[in-house]
């Protein structure tokens, strides 16, 4: 029996009345998507010279220290040499130049580097960078699977929009390019997406205690991967408490939130103590040491129209495609096309929201959680840019599943009764644009002369 046409934006928001297909079709589509992603990521990896991804030499040196000495690095004066770094970037890191002095990522939490160390140790010396990049490609594939889980939690288990969500991520050139780079972002994106997925499940689950345990472990791993994932701790805690309160009232909510916070902070605490012993008890995050070491890095000049315009434009460009060390943007016409996709999603999203009745708001808890991940990462990016000039859209990828979810919701609303296929087709068009971006712009620029 054919599903009824959604009568309002309310139906579009909560997934009722969507076009549905057999889950087996999802398996085929997701497998095809993963193979496409692997081909694209491999293309970006092959096109990019050694060290020509943001911060790649510093991440490599962290992995090398862990693999060769079994110890964690300590961030020290001289680990950031701006003049050396600019010279190496301008000459595209010639193989005759050493990268050993580039160690400014030594303050990062250790989990990614500990996981990468066995890969470094197993790889032939000449292939270590390639092997480590491939590790990140696999982590990116995991992110896509988790994003599909987010899609199922938002739209339903047999809805084409669930497949459209990870397809949208593959359609973002910078996501596939950075998934083929050596960086702790790959693990951070995976853990953030899993945390989003589990948080969405916790809101509606009949077994909130079990999900609170899982969420605590995932968030603890996230805090041991990248500091910005601290954003997800209050989101996950609130989601677990919200879901538990539906089953067992206030007491269950307190126990669930305590479980999430207790496990996550308990996993994080040894790292904080190590930092306090290393950098001083007033610096458990190593942020003060970091600020001292990178003191010459470009700083926020103030709230001028010129600078805010630069931040907005560069963040948008680098979210979609700005390769190398932000040195290779693409054709302005492509940014216009991506902007049109984004505007269409926003229009559809507003249309869906307008039709949502007040009586349904309590049933939209998963969307509140999703919105919190997006707002949280936007706030983290904005806060960081109050100190340093870092208009890098890739910093929003931990909320990539949330951003893609809202885009898919908007496209589907514009598609009416065929919303699911329309959303999937729109996301697939982005993937085609990614292929074009790789072969028409990224490969020639990344492989070209200094």
Number of domains: 1
Order of strands in the sheet with most strands: 1-2
Mean pLDDT equals 92
Relative strand content: under 5%
Global Rg:
22 Å
The class by helix and strand makeup works out as mainly alpha
The rounded distance between the terminal residues' Cα atoms is 61 Å
Largest sheet, described in full? Answer: 2 strands, antiparallel
* DSSP summary, beta strand count: 2
The percent range for helix content is 55-70%
| Number of helices in the DSSP assignment | 17
Which spans have pLDDT < 50 for at least 5 consecutive residues?
1-12, 14-21
Topology:
Layout: H1 9-14, H2 23-47, H3 56-69, H4 82-90, H5 111-122, H6 128-155, H7 160-170, H8 173-179, H9 185-204, H10 208-223, H11 232-279, H12 287-293, H13 305-320, E1 322-323, E2 328-329, H14 332-354, H15 365-384, H16 400-414, H17 419-447
Antiparallel strand pairs: 1-2
Helix pairs in contact: 2-6, 2-7, 2-8, 2-17, 3-5, 5-6, 6-7, 6-9, 6-16, 7-16, 7-17, 9-10, 9-11, 9-15, 10-11, 11-15, 14-16, 15-16, 16-17
Describe this structure in words.
This protein is mainly α and 450 residues long. It has one domain. It is 68% helix and 1% strand. It has 17 helices and two strands. The protein has helices at 9-14, 23-47, 56-69, 82-90, 111-122, 128-155, 160-170, 173-179, 185-204, 208-223, 232-279, 287-293, 305-320, 332-354, 365-384, 400-414, 419-447, and strands at 322-323, 328-329. It has a two-stranded antiparallel ribbon with strand order 1-2. A hairpin with a 4-residue loop joins β1 (322-323) and β2 (328-329). α9 runs antiparallel to α10.
């Amino acid at each position: 029996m054919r599903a009824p046409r959604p009568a309002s934006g309310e139906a579009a928001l909560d997934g009722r009345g969507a076009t549905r297909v057999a889950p087996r079709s999802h398996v085929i589509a997701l497998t095809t998507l993963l193979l496409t992603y692997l081909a694209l990521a491999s293309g970006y990896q092959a096109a990019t010279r050694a060290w020509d991804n943001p911060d790649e030499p510093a991440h490599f040196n962290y992995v090398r220290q862990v693999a060769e000495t079994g110890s964690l690095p300590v961030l020290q004066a001289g680990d950031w040499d701006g003049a050396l770094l600019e010279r190496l970037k301008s000459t595209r890191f010639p193989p005759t130049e050493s990268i050993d002095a580039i160690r400014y990522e030594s303050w990062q939490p250790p989990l990614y580097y500990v996981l990468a160390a066995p890969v470094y140790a197993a790889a032939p010396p000449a292939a270590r960078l390639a092997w480590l990049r491939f590790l990140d490609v696999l982590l990116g594939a995991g992110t896509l699977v988790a994003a599909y889980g987010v899609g199922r939690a938002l739209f339903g288990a047999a809805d084409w929009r669930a497949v459209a969500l990870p397809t949208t991520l593959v359609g973002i050139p910078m996501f596939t390019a950075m998934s083929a780079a050596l960086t702790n972002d790959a693990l951070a994106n995976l853990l953030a997406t899993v945390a989003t997925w589990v948080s969405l499940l916790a809101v509606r689950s009949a077994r909130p205690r079990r999900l609170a345990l899982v969420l605590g472990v995932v968030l603890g791993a996230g805090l041991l991967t990248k500091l910005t994932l601290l954003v997800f701790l209050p989101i996950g805690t609130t989601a677990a408490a919200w879901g538990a309160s539906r089953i067992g009232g206030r007491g269950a909510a307190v126990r669930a939130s305590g479980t999430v916070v207790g496990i996550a902070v308990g996993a994080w605490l040894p790292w904080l103590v190590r930092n306090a012993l290393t950098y001083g008890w007033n610096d458990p995050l190593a942020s003060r040491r970091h600020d001292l070491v990178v003191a010459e890095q470009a700083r926020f000049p103030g709230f001028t129209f010129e600078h805010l315009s630069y931040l907005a434009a560069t963040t948008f460009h680098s979210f979609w495609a700005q390769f190398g060390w932000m040195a290779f943007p693409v054709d302005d016409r492509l940014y216009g096309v991506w902007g049109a996709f984004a505007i269409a999603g926003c229009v559809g999203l507003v249309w869906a929201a307008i039709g949502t009745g007040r009586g349904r708001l309590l049933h939209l808890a998963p969307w509140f959680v999703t919105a919190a991940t997006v707002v949280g990462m936007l706030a983290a990016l904005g806060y960081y840019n109050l100190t340093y000039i870092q208009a890098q859209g890739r910093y929003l990828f931990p909320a990539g599943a949330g951003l893609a979810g809202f885009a898919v919701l908007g496209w589907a609303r514009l598609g009416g009764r065929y919303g699911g296929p329309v959303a999937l087709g729109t996301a697939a068009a982005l993937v085609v644009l990614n292929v074009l971006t790789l072969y028409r712009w990224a490969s020639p620029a990344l492989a070209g002369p200094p």
